[in-house]
Design goal:
two-stranded parallel ribbon, alpha/beta, 237 residues, Rossmann fold, binds NADP nicotinamide-adenine-dinucleotide phosphate, seven-stranded parallel β-sheet
């Protein structure tokens, strides 16, 4: 499987690359980012599976970037403005980065996918509280002044799933809605109503889903804990 990871340098994508490189089902990883990324030192010979591709414009891919994306089997899209960085950018930039970059990616990968009989799998990372309509806005977003942001993430979910539905089976789309992603490298945070998942578990769950197929179109935090822990236990066995 040729796997594209959108956002090569982030917290989750770094773990996806670490776990993905030794995975025998994954033959290559194309990591898209605005900066170069290196394989972790522990990857050894598997480092050769990683192709770091620097993208200057995520709304208009250059021909050389498109060449790297040809016939990808799956993509895990992690690029977004996270709540922590929300105040650092104008809102229009947040919309572009969190919604439009993902829709351009699914459309571009689909147009470059020529494998017959094997759909492209596209997984969009969203968040637990992201509502798909104004009626679903949870109290937590209202309290923290994040209604508009949440709705943009929810709109991205709808657009990505809609793209899959309208593709006549050419693209399988999935949205994941994690809570707080914990790891030993980060101080543990608590936000009322937000569940937790370990970084190792979520990365294992996402990789398992793109390799074996999506269990359903929207995966909750609990789904990913279950899928990720099962995948890691199977790897140990
Ligand atoms: N971490 C959590 O606890 C958590 C919880 C729930 C949901 N999520 C969701 O999971 C996804 C991944 O989260 P994360 O924690 O891994 O985020 P992260 O560490 O902030 O990584 C985000 C990635 O997006 C890239 N990016 C951001 N702005 C960009 C831009 N303007 N152009 C190109 N690339 C850009 C970053 O590149 P640079 O390194 O160059 O900035 C990085 O590779 C996000 O959708 C997030 O909302 C995360």
């Amino acid at each position: 499987m040729k796997l594209v990871i959108g956002g090569s340098t982030g917290y989750v994508s770094t773990e996806l690359i670490r776990q993905g490189l030794p995975n025998p089902a994954i033959t290559s990883i194309v990591a898209l980012g605005r900066r170069e990324v290196q394989a972790p030192a522990e990857s050894g010979a598997f480092a050769a599976k990683l192709r770091s591709v620097v993208v200057d414009d995520f709304e208009n891919y250059s021909d050389s970037v498109k060449k790297e994306l040809e016939d990808a089997d799956a993509c895990i899209w992690t690029i977004a403005v996270t709540p922590m960085n929300l105040q650092t950018l104008p809102f229009e930039e947040t919309v572009k980065i969190s919604r439009d970059y993902a829709t351009v990616a699914i459309r571009t990968l689909d147009s470059l996918h020529t494998k017959q009989g094997a759909p492209l799998r596209f997984l969009y990372m969203s968040g637990h509280f992201a509502p798909r309509s104004i009626d679903e806005v949870p109290e937590q977003l209202k309290t923290h002044g994040m209604i508009k942001y949440g709705l943009v993430r929810g709109e991205a979910e709808t657009l990505i799933l809609g793209y899959g539905e309208q593709s006549n089976g050419a693209v399988q789309a999935c949205v994941v809605k994690p809570g707080l992603i914990d790891s030993p490298s980060r101080p543990k945070r608590e936000i009322p109503g937000l569940p937790h998942i370990e970084l190792t578990d979520i990365a294992a769950a996402l990789l398992s889903q793109v390799v074996h197929g999506f269990e359903k179109d929207t995966l909750s935090n609990d789904d990913m804990v279950r899928i990720g822990q099962k995948a890691l236990a199977e790897q140990k066995a």
